[in-house]
Amino acid sequence: MRGASRSKNTQDLDKRVCMTNCPTLIVTVGLPARGKTYISKKLTRYLNWIDVPTKEFNVGQYRRECVKIYKSFEFFQPDNEEGLKIRKQCALAALNDVRQFLTDEGGQVAVFDATNTTRERRETIIRFAEQNGFKVFFVESVCEDPDVIAENIVQVKLGSPDYIHCNTEEAVADFMKRIKCYENSYQPLDEELDRDLSFIKIIDVGRRYLVNRVQDHIQSRIVYYLMNIHITPRSIYLCRHGESDLNIKGRIGGDSGLSARGKEFAKALRQFIQSQNIRDLKVWTSQMKRTIQTAEALGVPYEQWKALNEIDAGVCEELMYEEIQQRYPQEFALRDQDKYRYRYPKGESYEDLVQRLEPVIMELERQENVLVICHQAVMRCLLAYFLDKTAEELPYLKCTLHTVLKLTPMAYGCKVESVCLNVDAVNTHRDRPSNVDVSRLPEEALLTVPDHH
Amino acid sequence: IACLCEKGNKQNDLFSDIQNLQMSSKILVGKCSNLTLIVMVGLPARGKTYISRKLTRYLNWIGIPTKVFNVGEYRREAVKHYSAYDFFKSDNEDAVKIRQQCALAALRDVKNYLTEEEGQVAVFDATNTTRERRDMILEFGAENGFEIFFIESVCDDPNVIACNILEVKVSCPDYQDCNKTDAMDDFKKRIECYRMNYQPLDPDQYDKNLSFIKVIDVGRRFLVNRIQDHIQSRIVYYLMNIHVQPRSIYLCRHGESQQNMQGRLGGDSGLSTRGRKFAGALAEFVEEQNLKDLKVWTSQMRRSIQTAEALNVPYEQWKALNEIDAGLCEEMTYEDVRERFPEEFALRDQDKYYYRYPSGESYQDLVQRVEPVIMEMERQENVLVICHQAVMRCLLAYFLDKSADEMPYLKCPLHTVLKLTPVAYGCKVESISLNVDAVNTHRDRPEEVKRGPSILIRRNSVTPLTSPEPNKKPRMEGLDDPIIREVTPAQLTLCSASHTTLGCLICPALSSCFS
């Protein structure tokens, strides 16, 4: 997670996965409107979520900083000397920032997002990487499907700052000419000529892949991730189980069934799903009674994932916050100090949850329309992935009972719609109190505990 | 496959729990997966059988019932005595017929495994080098509702090929009466028989709509086309992580700990005096092995870290390698457990694999926890893993293809290093005791234990399976009988609709399938 610095007992060594000690420079390759920035951003989000500090460097952004006002495609013409000079400077500036991120700022992966369509440019980058001890991995996107390209342009180019003063037709016409400027000098990665490089060539938005010389674990994870994502329009629905008996009593964890209002929610959920008229909806639950009972009311097939079970509160299972404060005041304070990394004694932390949920995320990427009926902490983790939240924010994301979040991937991110199904429920959200010191008074600790019976 | 989803609708009673177990393996891969037929493609000595077996082991490990059907074995059953490479010549009519029969028999068993025997993935291990043959298999798949995924291994490096031949061909039953040179010679001529008619998968034209991975030069490059579902994407991920570089995996436990000496479970104590002695001995042992680039991994528990410290080399800590969490029983002796939790104690003996300590873990949980470690071990070369008894049993079970049932009773004594070296199609194990005394922490399976159906099986959890034995005696209906015979419905499914007349078995189109 971004902002999740190493925990105490890892010393200088990576604890979870055998990451290479060498930072990695991912280099995108491809004509404009081939999804390079989409891939860069998604990959960056994924790597940060699995605790690999990653940052993207988009050369287009640097160019926009440099040349405040974009005039037309002519800037990109291969014989525009002034343009060429500026573009080269921008690339170098970006590479400089890459070096700083990977060498001085503890970054582990940098994504260099630009067209990089000539062998010459790629050679420059390779030399740069060698000088600095970075490994290089190319991600090329090749696509000739005019529909896909047109859709890309509409989704992300028209709204770009470059075209802020143009109408749609003008923007599209100019952008197509821009692509043409690159086409003539485009030298795609070649099986023979580039056989010593490490790369993945993504063809036709994932219909086919060519993978060459994967060097290490992080590259193999990246390849696996890239082979599982797609751009087919779809929506992901996230919600919690209906209100449970333990919820009403203000107790955490456990494996209780639905309360009367929880059952009402399940019915309301059924109606909601039907009204949405979703094609081929998959429904997933955890293996705990309350999510299963919620799904049962939908009357459709569903799958149970153990990985979706709620965070294990260990010795605090089924206790009220008041009881936790009474029996384990120090633990309670420690949790408030670092809720992401704090692990319940004999239980789990949010950090553990993220690791547990990785296969779920991977499968969510593969799927199309999915409804996930899960739990508060789990839902926060999933939401943080899709909305690119930091480790600090994650444990405090608001995931209220009886509310469905509809996530629809859009351009480079995710649109969120929050749908409250109008069935009352207790509030289970506990904000971070202002005093997190171990020496605080019980009242201070319990200040933010939500009401319960 | 729809029945898994339907079961979610019924009340969760014990009966459906047990029934769910049958289906449960599908959950880990997240989807009600289709039945899949993996079809190997490639000239002889390209590693098809190596890949088939390793992949099968992995899929069974993650709970997906998988089995290999090696056509060569069927042929060896049918033709008891292999004479020479001439058998494989495409103009050897008698041989062509036999080979065609063998392939059909294997496909018949594939169908049986997937439809009658609860198999989920079948690996059809043969050369399958011609389009006609692959088209026939595609039809077979379409008629039976199997997803087809091709794995082609392409390699022209003469060193790799010679190495393969030496490792696995020269000692195979075909060549038991030959010397190495003759065997090598004959095998090379065998390869030539296939090469003439070899039509590799063509991603640009003919095969562009098929789902496949082309493995080029032993994993230097991969071409992946049209992955259909999760299981295929998992397979591709696995194939991209395995390699054939010679290397060794060293598994051992931490040195004897203070809790070990007291006969206590779990905890996070430090090494005893003897444990420290072992760490020193381990350091010497590692030096003697003279390894290039040894990676050392430990868990995050004190006893394994202290052991690694003595080696004076960089090491990495994996949380996933921590010992099984004994929950409420942590730090108790077995006697304490028997006294305080007699029911639990009995349950554990009844089914040690599934049994989960109250507020703790089971071996089954361990298997899931340890999967990324295994994947990384596949990627790596020389590795020393300093872990714990239950975890080591888990890792060992994977590499030595042991079942869930055997896993909790594998012997992993303190102060002993197990050296695993991949060899041919399996793993050679050497057990090296470092001659430092330690307590014995192994508890054998108790004799008097009622073994009924397990009541501890958790809904939708995964059971690693062992790779099933290949069909030793493939049923070859009377090879002595005339080739033309009644076309029974079973055989009809192997033929395309246009070949439903008697005599289809020798129709020209079909006979060329089995070159």
From TrEMBL, chain A:
Q: Which GO terms describe its biological process?
A: fructose 2,6-bisphosphate metabolic process; fructose metabolic process
Q: Which Gene3D superfamilies match?
A: P-loop containing nucleotide triphosphate hydrolases (3.40.50.300), Phosphoglycerate mutase-like (3.40.50.1240)
Instruction: Extract one GO molecular function annotation from the record.
Output: 6-phosphofructo-2-kinase activity
Going by the UniProt record, its keywords in alphabetical order are: ATP-binding, Hydrolase, Kinase, Multifunctional enzyme, Nucleotide-binding, Phosphoprotein, Transferase
Active site (catalytic residues): H241, E310
Which InterPro entries does this UniProt record tie to the protein? Answer: 6Pfruct_kin (IPR003094), 6Phosfructo_kin (IPR013079), His_Pase_superF_clade-1 (IPR013078), His_PPase_superfam (IPR029033), P-loop_NTPase (IPR027417), PG/BPGM_mutase_AS (IPR001345)
The record, for SUPFAM superfamilies, names: P-loop containing nucleoside triphosphate hydrolases, Phosphoglycerate mutase-like
Q: Which residues bind substrate?
A: R240, H241, G242, E243, S244, D245, L246, N247, R290
PROSITE patterns hit by this protein: PG_MUTASE
Q: Which residues form a coiled coil?
A: none
Q: Which CDD domains match?
A: HP_PGM_like
Source domain of life: Eukaryota
Ranges where the 6-phosphofructo-2-kinase domain occurs: 19-233
Gene Ontology, cellular component aspect: cytosol
PANTHER family given in the database record: 6-PHOSPHOFRUCTO-2-KINASE/FRUCTOSE-2,6-BISPHOSPHATASE, 6-PHOSPHOFRUCTO-2-KINASE_FRUCTOSE-2,6-BISPHOSPHATASE 4
Family label:
In the C-terminal section; belongs to the phosphoglycerate mutase family.
| Name listed for the protein in its UniProt record | 6-phosphofructo-2-kinase/fructose-2,6-bisphosphatase 4-like
Q: Which organism is it from?
A: Sinocyclocheilus anshuiensis
TrEMBL record, chain B:
Write down the CDD domains for this protein, in alphabetical order.
HP_PGM_like
One Gene Ontology cellular component = cytosol
6-phosphofructo-2-kinase domain ranges (all copies): 34-246
Pfam families according to UniProt? 6PF2K (PF01591), His_Phos_1 (PF00300)
Detail which positions bind substrate. Answer: R253, H254, G255, E256, S257, Q258, Q259, N260, R303
Quick check: keyword Hydrolase in the entry? yes
Cite a single GO MF annotation: fructose-2,6-bisphosphate 2-phosphatase activity
Which terms does the UniProt entry file under GO BP? fructose 2,6-bisphosphate metabolic process; fructose metabolic process
Q: Which UniProt keywords are present, listed alphabetically?
A: ATP-binding, Hydrolase, Kinase, Multifunctional enzyme, Nucleotide-binding, Phosphoprotein, Transferase
Q: Which gene encodes it?
A: pfkfb3
Q: Member of which family?
A: In the C-terminal section; belongs to the phosphoglycerate mutase family.
User: Can you tell which superkingdom this protein's organism belongs to?
Assistant: Eukaryota
Q: What is this protein called?
A: 6-phosphofructo-2-kinase domain-containing protein
Q: Which organism is it from?
A: Sinocyclocheilus anshuiensis
Which residues catalyse the reaction?
H254, E323
Q: Where are the transmembrane segments?
A: none
